[in-house]
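Quiz preparation item.
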C-alpha cells in the first residue's frame, strides 16, 4: 500500500536528515579543520590568507579594471569609483571556447590578454595606467596579494601545463607579450573574497562572503594575530580576509560519517572523484544530480514510477539540473504540482499523484540538507568572528533562485548560534565589482 511505500522511502532518505548529534559532530569537525588549517597542519580546509587586510576607506577614486575568470562567463569590467563607491560600470562578456579551456595554459592566458586589450582599446584607455583586480576562482596558494599559485583547475577548465604556476605572472607576461595597454595587475582573489568586499560597500558590518552558485565557498574577516601563514612583511594589520576553500571540506575523510550511497554515486558521476566533498553536498552543480540519483534508485527498487512507463532519460547522469529542483521546490512552497508534472513529462514520465509527492519530498530533503550544512558552517563562523553584528554577503544563482534555501538558512543559524546577531544580503556580482574594489584597495596600500 501507499503507506508502506511511503514508510520505506522515508527510511531510505533518513540518512540525508541529520540528528542533533550529527549536527554537533559536523560543527566540531568544521571547527577542528579550521583550526588545523589556520595553524598550517594537515586539514581539508586550506584557510588561505588572501592578504586583503582591510576594506575600502572611502578615499578610493578613479578607474579600475576587473577580470573575472572561473564563473559561468569570462568577463571584463571597468569600474569608476568616487569616494570609495562605484558610480559607473562597463562590463563585457567574452566567450572562451571549450577548445581553449582544456589544453595549453599559455594559449588560454594569451586569449585573456587579447580580451583585455580589446576591452581597454574599445574604451580608448590604452594609454591610461589601469589597476586591475583578477578574480581567479580556482584553488590557489597565495604568497601575497598579487601572487597566486594555481593548485588545481576545476569546473570546465583543465590546462595542466600551468598548474603550480602564478596566475598573476601568467597574466602579466601575456599582457607584456602584447604590450598594447598600460594595465597593471594589482591583486588576485577569488569570487568569495570579491563578494565580501563588494558586500562591505553595501553594509559596513559585512564580515563573511559566501558563494552558492555552481560551486560553493566562504571567506571571513579573521583577526590578523591568529593567522600564521603570512609571507609578506606585516604592517600592523588588525584583520585579514581568510578564504576557507570550504568546497574541499571533508576531502580527507573527516566528513565520511554523513556520506550516503547517493553521495557516493554523485561523486562517481562527477568530473573529479574524491574531491570537493562538501561542495558536492551543497552546490548548484550537484544538487540536481543527487536528487536524480535518489529518484533513479527508488525507481529501480520499484518504489517510484511504477506505471508502465520507464524514466529512461532520468537515468542518465547530469540530466536533472538544479534549476529544475528550484522549480519543483516552488511547487512545494505553493502547495502545487504543475512544475513537477511538467518536468517529469519532459523526461517522458507520466507521474501519478503519489509519484509527484515523492519527487517533491526528495527535492525537499536534498535541498534542506544543503541549507543545514551551510548553516552549520556559517554559525561556526559567527561564533569565531564574535562581533556584535555580522552581515553575510552572498552571491550565486543557487542562493538567488532556490525558493527555500535562504529561508531555511535564516531559520537554522539562530538555532545554531543563538547569541549572535546576523544579517544576510545579496552582493550581486561580487566576483566582478569586488575585484575592481580590491584593485583599488591594493593601489591605496601600495
Ligand atoms: P557561477 O558559475 O559563477 O557560480 P552562478 O552563480 O550564476 O554562476 O551559478 C550558476 C549555477 O547556479 C548553475 O550551474 C546552476 O547549478 C545554479 N542555478 C542556476 N539557476 C538556478 C536556479 N533557478 N535554481 C537553482 N540553482 C540554479
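Solution:
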Amino acid at each position: 500500500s501507499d503507506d508502506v511505500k511511503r514508510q520505506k522511502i522515508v527510511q531510505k532518505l533518513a540518512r540525508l536528515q541529520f540528528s542533533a548529534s550529527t549536527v554537533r559532530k559536523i560543527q566540531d569537525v568544521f571547527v577542528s579543520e579550521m583550526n588545523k588549517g589556520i595553524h598550517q597542519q594537515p586539514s581539508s580546509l586550506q584557510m588561505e590568507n588572501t592578504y586583503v587586510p582591510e576594506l575600502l576607506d572611502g578615499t578610493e577614486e578613479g578607474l579600475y579594471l576587473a577580470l573575472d575568470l572561473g564563473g559561468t562567463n569570462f568577463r571584463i569590467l571597468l569600474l569608476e569609483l568616487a569616494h570609495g563607491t562605484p558610480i559607473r560600470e562597463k562590463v563585457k562578456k567574452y566567450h572562451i571556447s571549450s577548445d581553449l579551456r582544456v589544453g595549453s595554459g599559455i594559449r588560454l592566458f594569451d586569449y585573456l590578454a587579447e580580451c583585455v586589450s580589446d576591452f581597454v582599446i574599445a574604451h580608448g584607455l590604452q594609454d591610461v595606467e589601469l589597476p586591475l583586480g583578477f578574480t581567479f576562482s580556482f584553488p590557489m596558494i597565495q604568497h601575497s596579494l598579487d601572487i597566486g599559485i594555481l593548485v588545481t583547475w576545476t569546473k570546465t577548465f583543465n590546462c595542466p601545463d600551468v598548474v603550480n604556476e602564478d596566475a598573476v605572472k601568467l597574466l602579466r607576461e601575456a599582457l607584456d607579450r602584447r604590450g598594447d595597454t598600460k594595465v597593471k595587475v594589482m591583486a588576485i582573489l577569488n569570487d568569495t573574497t570579491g563578494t565580501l568586499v563588494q558586500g562591505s560597500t553595501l553594509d559596513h558590518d559585512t564580515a563573511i562572503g559566501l558563494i552558492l552558485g555552481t560551486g560553493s565557498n566562504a571567506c571571513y574577516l579573521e583577526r590578523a594575530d591568529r593567522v600564521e601563514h603570512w609571507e609578506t612583511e606585516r604592517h600592523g594589520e588588525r584583520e585579514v580576509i581568510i578564504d576557507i576553500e570550504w568546497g574541499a571540506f571533508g576531502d580527507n575523510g573527516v566528513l565520511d560519517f554523513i556520506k550516503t550511497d547517493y553521495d557516493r554515486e554523485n561523486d562517481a558521476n562527477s568530473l573529479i572523484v574524491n574531491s570537493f566533498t562538501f561542495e558536492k553536498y551543497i552546490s548548484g552543480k550537484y544538487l540536481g544530480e543527487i536528487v536524480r540519483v535518489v529518484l533513479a534508485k527508488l525507481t529501480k527498487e520499484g518504489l517510484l514510477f511504477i506505471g508502465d512507463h520507464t524514466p529512461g532519460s532520468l537515468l542518465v547522469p547530469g540530466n536533472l539540473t538544479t534549476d529544475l529542483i528550484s522549480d519543483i521546490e516552488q511547487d512545494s512552497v505553493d502547495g502545487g504540482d504543475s512544475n513537477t508534472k511538467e518536468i517529469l513529462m519532459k523526461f517522458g514520465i507520466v507521474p501519478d499523484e503519489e509519484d509527484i509527492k515523492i519527487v517533491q519530498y526528495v527535492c525537499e530533503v536534498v535541498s534542506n540538507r544543503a541549507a543545514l550544512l551551510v548553516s552549520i558552517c556559517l554559525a561556526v563562523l559567527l561564533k569565531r568572528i564574535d562581533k556584535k553584528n555580522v552581515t553575510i554577503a552572498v552571491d550565486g544563482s543557487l542562493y538567488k533562485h532556490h525558493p527555500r534555501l535562504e529561508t531555511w538558512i535564516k531559520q537554522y543559524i539562530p538555532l545554531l548560534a543563538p547569541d549572535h546577531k546576523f544579517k544576510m544580503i545579496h552582493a550581486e556580482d561580487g566576483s566582478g565589482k569586488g575585484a575592481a574594489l580590491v584593485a583599488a584597495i591594493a593601489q591605496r596600500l601600495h
